[in-house]
Amino acid sequence: MNWLRRWLQRKPETLAQPTFPHLHWLLNSTWLAQAVYVAARLDIAEELRAGPKSADVLASKCGVQPDELMRVLRALAGFGIFSRDSQGRFSLTESALPLLHDNPHSIQAYSEVWGVQLYAGAGRLLEQLRTGEPGFKLQHGLPMWQHYEADAEAGALFDRFMSVTTDAHCRFIPKWFDFSKFQHVVDVGAGGGSLLSTVLHSNPKQRGTWYDRAEVLPLAQERIEKEGLGSRCELIAGDFLQSVPAGGDLYLIKHVLHDWEDSMATRIVANIAEAMSKDSKLLIIGGLLDETNNRDGLCKLRDLEQMFWTGGRVRTRSDFERLLHPAGMHITATTQTPIVDVCIIEVSK
Question: Where is the O-methyltransferase dimerisation domain (predicted)?
């Protein structure tokens, strides 16, 4: 979605209608986001995989009104998502390809999560500022993780979104960090095991420990066994708020700390530090905010998203140092990857 980022960051004088204030464009982008969600929810990209189709044909397949669907797709085509020919038929464009399920950069699941679980709750932003309660809890009545335990369908959609996103990130992480010098990698909050399995495949002599909640273990176990890593990977169920397995010379924690407010994130870091030897290393993988400029807008929106989900936050380097200092750890290096919310932060005792 780099095209959208560029469009949103254009200066007012570069917009197609210079007299239309820039803030109005940003406010109207609400409709664009909802239109993307609708296209994802109706699987329009999949319907167009075989070739161009009219709105009438698409509406019949999707069970919606043809005129209304035509207008939604026409609006998306105005921003390069799909194209419309002289016969009124819609086709896939390069910008629409991430809406395909099997695209390696698919945002299909994220579009649905955003449209169903985030969009309505975003309207609670002012209420969150006044109460301090996460917008997700205000909207759904329960904290995020409890809501997903109570609503299996919502939880499954969120898990699918996380799995696709994590798989997309993890394919590239070994290109940005050299894992070969480590013997035993412990992945804390390892989820479905995508990152750990990628690292182990890249380093055939390495051992790994998967560590996460018991509810996630069957998913990870299936993956580890399917990929033939069972002899090199131990799976341990537990709670990283209580303890972390010892024995690793490299500890990983990816897109976890941003889910937690500072006191809880500090506890997680302290538990990892307690498990580490004096020579062990920790990699924190996630977003890193830059406070020195007014750019980096997408990462700052990610911070608002975390605030909404759980009351967590995307942190700056100084924020991370404050988490690490009580545990006797410090940052030794950072590598910002081409993915805006994937920075590799190297930490030592």
Answer: 26-97
For CA atoms 253, 174, 287, 222, give the dihedral sign.
Answer: negative
What is the rounded distance in angstroms from the CA atom of residue 316 to the CA atom of residue 30? Answer: 28
Identify the pLDDT of residue 5. Answer: 52
Q: How far apart are CA 41 and CA 116, in angstroms?
A: 10
pTM over 0.90? The answer is no
Q: What is the CA radius of gyration of the chain?
A: 22
10-68 pLDDT, tens digit each: 554 454 554 457 787 788 888 998 999 999 999 999 999 999 999 999 999 999 999 99
Give the catalytic positions in this structure: 258
Residues 317, 31: Cα–Cα separation, whole Å: 35
Question: What is the rounded end-to-end Cα distance, in angstroms, of the chain?
Answer: 38
- Domain ranges (residues) in the chain: 21-99, 107-162, 169-348
Q: Name the CATH superfamily for 169-348.
A: Vaccinia Virus protein VP39 (3.40.50.150)
Q: Report the pLDDT averaged over residues 284-301.
A: 83
| Cα 235 to Cα 119: distance, rounded to the nearest angstrom | 36
